[in-house]
Design a protein that fits this description.
Elements (H helix, E strand, L loop, with lengths): L25 E10 L6 E11 L3 E6 L6 H8 L7 E6 L2 E2 L5 H11 E4 L11 H13 L3 H14 L15 H13 L5 E5 L7 H16 L4 E5 L11 E6 L2 E5 L1 H11 L1
Parallel strand pairs: 3-8, 3-9, 6-7, 7-8
Antiparallel strand pairs: 1-2, 1-4, 4-5, 9-10
Length: about 260
């Protein structure tokens, strides 16, 4: 299935696709984060270090409560670690003033949250248009054209007029995913992007993320329980009890086939 679009996936002004042997676009160095105090204190991240590269989809897996969403939030600049550093495009993210952190996220990052975070008063098309109109200064005509194209890719073309209250959970998720990808972000952080979708639409979403990585050179980090995503990932990490290890993608794929 090809989801490539010359309008949506322009590489102009973007870094070349990167891979093994190149400098990582995102580095987490000795990251630690805990919650609570005393006997209720829980360690979510225990000196986690990892490098992520442009042009790759990295999949982060692990049991519920293992710290996956915490690591995603720390790496994306949404949650400050207790200790450690995050280096994004050569910038020490947590050393920046808060306003500069916000500017960095606005310019470089796309987010796909489990809670959708859609604006109640806006239609599906308007949710996407505002990213280009107010975030990048695009004309109304250009924003509408690209928004309609993205909604078509997501199977939402006939529902572009719907507001969130009129959508199913899966439809809201697809709109949220489209919004995250509209600005061609250098980084895309996706927290359970297929959890509200049947696999036909889930596979379509993963293909979009793969296009953003492999054809645009974006750095994609996906947090998920859905093992069906593993064959689409370039790297697979497993987080448990605050400790991170990288899995062999081929071995993971073999395990899936054996279970099936």
């Amino acid at each position: 299935m090809s989801t490539t679009s010359p309008l949506l996936w322009s590489t102009e002004g973007r870094p070349e696709q990167m891979g093994d042997g190149d400098e990582p676009t995102l580095r987490g160095i000795e990251l630690s984060r805990s919650f609570g105090d005393g006997e209720t204190r829980v360690t979510a991240l225990d000196h986690v270090t990892l490098d992520l590269y442009g042009g790759q989809i990295s999949l982060l897996m692990g049991p519920s409560g293992s710290g996956k969403s915490t690591l995603l939030a720390v790496l994306s600049g949404l949650l400050r670690p207790d200790s450690g550093r995050v280096i994004a495009l050569g910038t020490d993210l947590w050393a920046l003033p808060e306003r500069e952190q916000e500017a960095f996220r606005l310019r470089h990052c796309g987010f796909i949250f489990q809670g959708y975070n859609l604006f109640p008063a806006l239609t599906a098309r308007q949710q996407l248009e505002m990213v280009l109109r107010w975030g990048q200064g695009a004309s109304g005509r250009e924003a509408r054209r690209k928004s309609e194209e993205m909604l078509t890719l997501l199977g939402m073309a006939r529902k572009s007029h719907l507001r969130p209250v009129e959508m199913s959970g899966g439809e809201k998720q697809r709109v949220a995913i489209g919004r995250a990808l509209m600005k061609n972000p250098d980084f895309c952080f996706a927290d359970e992007p297929t959890s509200a979708l049947d696999w036909a639409h889930g596979e379509q979403v993963v293909e979009l993320l793969r296009t953003a990585a492999h054809e645009r050179g974006a750095t994609i980090l996906v947090v998920a329980h859905d093992a069906r995503i593993i064959p689409y990932a370039d790297r697979v990490f497993h987080l448990e009890d605050g400790r991170l290890k990288e899995e062999d993608v081929e071995d993971q794929g073999t395990k899936i086939k054996e279970r099936v």
